[in-house]
Amino acid sequence: MVRLENVEMKKFLIAALVVFLLPCACFAGPFGLEAGMSRDEVIKKIGKDAKPGKGDHSIISATVPIQNSNFIIYEFHFDSKNRLDSIEALSKSVPTQSNGEDLLYFFQTLRYTLEDKYGKSPMVWNDDGHMKWEEIVASTGKIYAAANWFGHGENGTEMRSLHIGNIHLEAFALNETSGYVELTYIFDISTARGL
């Protein structure tokens, strides 16, 4: 009887450790970061790799607490109070055939992964590749495909729980034979961390 109680007690202790000591891993936001984190908190999580970004309110890093092999560089933007308000993740260059289909496939794969987590995107542009690749390469914006999610929509429950206001996924043409994808999380920091 004592052995059974010890086994049950061990199970209880393991469950308690998982629930109480690892909440940041279980409930972390995109790439292991949370809306409203201070600049210092973000730098502490990403480590020595942090470099100044494009503006006064951003930093760039090739690492994040929860890595995603699809992306190689991350830019973290902060509001005027130095609270994390958005993350941009850029993919590696994606070699593509002359019609852009490999880039479109990569974009769709990422889109479906996001839809599994946040629900169907209510706004998708050029997912079927109806825009001609040559026209995209020649255009000034060079956006080949795009999808957006909104935290206020009917499928926004998961997004709201992580204080995400919007998600943007865009595929860009670099030239005739390559492109890249950019994923942006825009936080609703007014609801985050009691701010």
SSE arrangement:
Layout: H1 2-21, H2 23-27, H3 39-46, E1 51-52, E2 58-61, E3 71-78, E4 84-91, E5 94-95, H4 101-118, E6 123-125, H5 133-138, E7 143-150, H6 157-161, E8 164-175, E9 178-187
Biggest sheet record? 9 strands, antiparallel
Judged by helices, strands and strand pairing, the structural class is: alpha+beta
- Average of per-residue pLDDT values: 80
Strands, count: 9
Strand content: 25-35%
Q: Please state the overall shape, judged from the principal axes of the Cα atoms.
A: globular
**Uncertain regions spanning at least 5 consecutive residues:** 1-7, 9-27
Through-space gap between termini: 51 Å
Number of helices, where a helix is a run of at least 4 consecutive DSSP H or I residues? 6
What's the alpha carbon Rg, rounded to whole Å? Answer: 20 Å
Helix content: 25-40%
Strand-and-helix sequence, N→C?
HHHEEEEEHEHEHEE
Describe what this molecule looks like in 3D.
This protein is 32% helix and 29% strand. The longest helix has 20 residues, at 2-21. The protein has 6 helices and 9 strands; from the N terminus they run H-H-H-E-E-E-E-E-H-E-H-E-H-E-E. It is α+β, with helices and mostly antiparallel strands and 195 residues long. Strands 1, 2, 3, 4, 5, 6, 7, 8 and 9 form a 9-stranded antiparallel β-sheet that branches. It has helices spanning 2-21, 23-27, 39-46, 101-118, 133-138, 157-161, and strands at 51-52, 58-61, 71-78, 84-91, 94-95, 123-125, 143-150, 164-175, 178-187. It has a domain at 93-190.
